[in-house]
Design a protein that fits this description.
This protein has 11 helices and 15 strands. By secondary structure, the protein is an alpha/beta fold.
Length: 452
C-alpha cells in the first residue's frame, strides 16, 4: 500500500484505516505472538530477527490507533428465552476467563448424553453439522468417518479423486536453518515420484500436507469447505462452505481419477452468486498446482508440487477455521481446547442455547482463574480508549488529554481523571483497585514507522 501510494513515510501510505476484531478469540497460529503480548517489543533492535522487527513495528502502528469504539450489543445470540440470556452471560464471562459456577453448570447442561434431559447428537438439526474441534488430526478423522457415513445414509457411492504430485525444485535457501535441515530436496534428473513414494504421499492426512488432500473422497450432496481464496468477488474464499453438485474429472491411471473442476453450491454466501451457465450460488473450483510441504512418516519434510482442487470434506473444522461464523446449530468438542480463548471461540459461534451442543465433557478449570496479564492490560487500555472516544464525541474531554500514541493519550487521561477512575461499562474481571492496582504508566516511545 505504501509503495502503491508512493508514501513510505506513513503507515498504510497515509490512508485512514478501520480495524475490527475480538482479542478474546484466538491469538495468531503457529509461533506468532499477538500484538498485545509482552513478548513483542515496542522498540526495534538491530540484533532482532526480521520477524521480530516486523512485530515491533506492527505493535507500534497498533498503538497509534487511539479512536476506539467497543461494540457491546451481542448481535449473534439475540434469542430472548431465559436460557439464551444465561448463555449470553456465560459467554461474556468466558471472554475474560471469569465464568461463575452457574455459567459452568449451564454449559455442562449442553453436554450430549444418553440420560433423560440430556441433549442428543442424533437430533435432525445436528445431522451433518460440522463439529468444531481443536486438533487438526481430530478434524481429519471426523471428516474421514463423516464421508463414509454420509454416503451410506444417502445411498451413494464415494468417488476418490487423487492429486497429481511432482517433486518440487524448491530453493535450498528458503526457510529457517532447522527447516532446511529437515527438508528433503532430492536433486534428480526427473521430478516423477516413485510408486512407493507416491502412495505414501497419497496416504498422508491433510494435516500433514498443508491441508491439501492427496485423496479426496466425494459424492453428490456432500458438504465441503473451500481452503483457498480463489475468486473473492464470487465468494469463493478460504473457509467458504458448500455442497458438491457435480464435477469434471480425467483418468491418471487405470483405476484412478483426478479432478479438473468441482462444482460447489455455496450454502452461506454473503451475497447471491450467479455465473453464466450455472445455477444460482453454484461456483466452479478448478484444480491448481501448489507447493506443499509434506511431513513424512520418518519425521522429515518433503516439498512437492501438488495439483488438486482446494477443498476438504466439511464434517469437522478446527477452532481457528470457525472464527467469524454464526451457526444456528453449533456442535463443539471442547475437551482438547488449549485455552479459554479456544473454548470461547467455539461456543460463541452458536446463536441459541438449544442450538448449542457439546459432544463430550470438558475441563471446567479452563473457564475460570482470570486472563493473562498482557491480555488483561490490553482489554483495560481499550476500555479507557473507548471512554476517551466517547467523551471526545460528547465534547466533555479536557484539553489536557492529548497524545498521538496510546501510551501518551492514556497517560494524560488518567492524570486528569485519577488512577482509580473506572469506566462504568467495564467488566468486573478488568476492574482495578488497591488490591489489584493498575498504576499509571510512564510515557514511552514506540519505534517509528519504517519499511524493512
Amino acid at each position: 500500500m505504501c509503495a502503491a501510494l508512493r508514501n513510505e513515510g506513513k503507515p498504510f501510505g497515509g490512508i485512514n484505516m478501520i480495524f475490527a476484531g475480538d482479542f478474546a478469540q484466538l491469538p495468531p497460529a503457529m509461533s506468532g505472538h499477538a500484538l498485545y503480548s509482552h513478548k513483542v517489543g515496542r522498540v526495534i533492535h538491530r540484533t532482532q530477527a526480521h520477524a521480530q522487527q516486523e512485530a515491533s513495528i506492527g505493535k507500534a502502528v497498533w498503538h497509534q490507533f487511539t479512536t476506539v469504539v467497543i461494540l457491546r450489543e451481542n448481535m449473534r445470540q439475540r434469542s430472548q428465552g431465559p436460557e439464551d440470556a444465561k448463555l449470553r452471560t456465560a459467554i461474556e464471562n468466558l471472554r475474560y476467563k471469569a465464568c461463575t459456577p452457574d455459567d459452568i453448570k449451564l454449559l455442562q447442561s449442553r453436554v450430549a448424553g444418553r440420560g433423560s434431559g440430556k441433549p442428543k447428537l442424533n437430533q435432525p438439526r445436528f445431522r451433518n453439522v460440522s463439529v468444531i474441534t481443536a486438533w487438526n488430526s481430530h478434524r481429519d478423522k471426523i471428516n474421514e468417518l463423516g464421508c463414509q457415513r454420509f454416503a451410506q445414509e444417502n445411498g451413494k457411492s464415494l468417488t476418490t479423486f487423487y492429486s497429481v504430485d511432482r517433486l518440487s525444485a524448491d530453493n535450498d535457501e528458503e526457510g529457517t536453518k532447522k527447516q532446511r535441515r529437515n527438508t528433503v530436496n532430492p536433486r534428480r534428473s526427473t521430478n516423477i515420484l516413485s510408486e512407493e513414494l507416491q502412495n505414501c504421499l497419497w496416504d498422508l492426512s491433510p494435516t500433514l500436507t498443508n491441508h491439501l488432500p492427496g485423496k479426496l473422497p466425494l459424492c453428490i450432496g456432500m458438504p465441503v469447505m473451500i481452503k483457498v481464496n480463489e475468486a473473492t468477488e464470487c465468494c469463493v474464499t478460504n473457509g467458504a462452505e458448500g455442497v458438491v453438485v457435480g464435477w469434471k474429472a480425467k483418468p491418471i491411471d487405470e483405476d484412478k481419477e483426478t479432478l479438473e473442476t468441482l462444482f460447489v453450491k455455496l450454502t452461506a454466501a454473503p451475497t447471491t452468486v450467479q455465473l453464466e451457465g450455472l445455477p444460482e450460488n453454484v461456483v466452479p473450483i478448478s484444480q491448481q498446482a501448489r507447493k506443499v510441504q509434506c511431513k513424512m512418516p520418518n519425521g522429515r519434510t518433503l516439498t512437492i508440487s501438488r495439483s488438486q482442487v482446494s477443498v476438504v470434506p466439511n464434517f469437522a473444522m478446527i477452532d481457528f477455521g470457525s472464527q467469524g461464523r454464526t451457526r444456528p446449530n453449533n456442535v463443539c468438542d471442547l475437551q482438547n481446547c488449549r485455552s479459554h480463548q479456544s473454548i470461547y471461540t467455539c461456543l460463541s459461534r452458536g446463536s441459541t442455547y438449544e442450538g448449542t451442543i457439546i459432544v463430550q465433557p470438558f475441563d471446567a478449570s479452563k473457564l475460570t482463574g482470570g486472563i493473562s496479564g498482557s491480555l488483561r492490560q490490553e482489554f483495560r487500555e481499550l476500555e479507557l480508549l473507548d471512554e476517551i472516544t466517547k467523551l471526545w464525541y460528547l465534547g466533555k474531554i479536557s484539553p489536557k488529554v492529548t497524545g498521538i500514541t496510546r501510551n501518551e493519550l492514556i497517560h494524560s487521561f488518567r492524570k486528569w481523571k485519577g488512577e482509580q477512575f473506572l469506566p462504568k461499562t467495564m467488566h468486573r474481571a478488568l476492574v482495578w483497585g488497591n488490591s489489584d492496582p493498575f498504576p499509571i504508566a510512564d510515557v514511552q516511545e514506540d519505534s517509528p514507522w519504517q519499511v524493512i
